[in-house]
Structure formats: C-alpha cells, structure tokens
Amino acid sequence: MHTLIAQFERTIHEFHDQLARITEAESEPPLSPGKWSRKQVIGHLIDSAANNHQRFVRLQLGTNLSLPGYEQDGWVARQDYQHRSWTDLLLLWQSYNLHLLHVVARIPEDKLGNVGSVGGGESVTLGFLVEDYVRHLKHHLGQILG
To answer: pLDDT at position 146, please?
Structure first.
C-alpha cells in the first residue's frame, strides 16, 4: 500500500501542475464530438472522489456492505461543471484528492480486506477500491492532457 500511496501523491502533484497550465478557453470544448469537456471530466473526477470518500470510510467501519453506485452522466449534468471556472474546479479537485490521500494513508492494513459491493455489483475489497480509484484517476487525467 505504501507504493500506491506514493503513486497517488505524485499523481496529484504532477498532474495538478500540468492541469494548471490549461487555460479557461482550452478547458471548455468537448475532448471529441459527443464527449465531455476538460471541465466536465475534472468534475467527474470530483464526483468520483466524493463517492469513493464514503466507500473508503464506510469499509473501514464495517464489512459485507452494500454501497451505492452513482450515475456519472447525471451527476456531471446536474452540477453543470461546464459553467464553473477551470481554476475553481482544479482547486476543488486538488483539495479533495489531498484529503483522500490523507484518508487512504491512514487505513489500517487489517481493514484493506473488508469487502463491499458497489451498485449491486460483485463484492470487492477496500484495497481493490483504493487501487481502482487511483487507476481511474490516472486514466481520466491522461484524457484531459491528451
């Protein structure tokens, strides 16, 4: 887990520096026809942080839990990230992920095997959810930077 925590921290800092160079105008158009804009992708990553925050804490407090999923397109649409400033979105993304890093770094080893199902899916461990979160984060950050 120590390697994953270090990777997560590097990802936050290195990508933040690159994302901060994107202008407001560059953040607005869709990445390709019919797809989200950079603003909407970073908004999706904020939503992912919010949903996974609860999962990370709840699975430390119990096991065999049924955790809610979320409808990502609906979340992005309802929050209208397209009409927020890029700077504000980036600050929220960075702050939330630094908090998640703090949470993850304090998960006791004996809790990483606690299991839960997300959105009615198969049971997965807390350790898997943390790894998957970082993988998902890096995937979408790569999309934003193209």
So the answer is: 86
Residue in 47, 55, 56 with CA at minimum distance from that of residue 102? 56
Distance in angstroms (rounded) separating the CA atoms of residues 38 and 8? 21
Using the predicted structure, report yes or no on whether residue 1 has a pLDDT greater than 90: no
Domain ranges of the chain: 2-20+37-145
Give the CATH superfamily of 2-20+37-145: dinb family like domain (1.20.120.450)
Q: pLDDT for 51-92, tens place per residue?
A: 999 999 999 999 999 999 999 999 999 999 999 999 999 999
Q: Which of 135, 131, 138, 129 is nearest to 56 (CA)?
A: 129
